[in-house]
Protein: Protein translocase subunit SecE
Organism: Kosmotoga olearia
Amino acid sequence: MAQKSFWRFITEVRQETKKVTWPNRKQLLSTTGAVMVVLLVCGIFLGLLDIIFTNVIGDLLKFLTGGL
C-alpha cells in the first residue's frame, strides 16, 4: 500500500510541475541579481552592527571592570 501511494504521489508531483509557469532567462537573471544585492546589503549592515556592538560592549566592560 505504501508503495502504491508513493508512486501516486510522484505522478501527481510531475503533473503539478507541468502546470507551473517557469521564469524565462531574463526574469531569472533579474530576480537572482536582486536577491544577491539584498543579501550583500544585509550582510554589510549586519557586519557593521556586529563591529559596533562588539566595540561598545568591549568598552563598557573595560569601564565597568576598571580598565583591566
Q: What stands out?
A: The helical segments are 2-19, 25-64. The mean pLDDT is 93. The two ends are 70 Å apart (CA to CA).
